[in-house]
Each structure stands twice: as C-alpha cells, then as structure tokens.
C-alpha cells in the first residue's frame, strides 16, 4: 500500500533526510520519501501491517524532529 501524508512543522532538509533514512529501515517498509520542499511523506509498506508501521513512523519522526506532526 502506498500513501501520502502532509507534514506540519518540518524545519530542515537535513531532518527530512534523517527521517527518510530511519523510516526505510523499519521492517515492512518497501519505500519512503520525505520531502522538505513540499512538506510531504510518501510511504509504501505492507498492507496487513500498515497501521502498526505508521505508529513506528510517527515515533521515528518525533525522535528526529519533535515539533513535526504527520497529518493523517
């Protein structure tokens, strides 16, 4: 399943790159893209575990950029 999400308060391109790298390492994630310019997250992950994976994605994003919110 591939979904796009809007990001709120993503403050720097370096943080976006760190988030993208960390999200790609989550088990079940096929691909991820975090765009600082468009403030969007695109993620492709297993359908059966998508909600569980998104919980992990939220945790990763908060560790890298505490003020950033994923709008679902």
Automatic annotation (TrEMBL):
Pfam families: HMA
GO molecular function: metal ion binding
SUPFAM superfamilies recorded: HMA, heavy metal-associated domain (SSF55008)
HMA domain mapped to chain residues: 1-69
Protein name (database record): Heavy-metal-associated domain-containing protein
Species whose genome carries this gene: Clostridium porci
């Amino acid at each position: 399943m591939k979904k796009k999400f809007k990001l709120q308060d993503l403050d720097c391109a370096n943080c976006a790159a760190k988030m993208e790298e960390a999200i790609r390492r989550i088990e079940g994630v096929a691909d991820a893209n975090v765009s600082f310019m468009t403030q969007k997250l695109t993620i492709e992950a297993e359908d059966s575990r998508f909600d569980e994976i998104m919980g992990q994605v939220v945790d990763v994003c908060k560790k890298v950029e505490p003020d950033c919110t994923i709008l679902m």
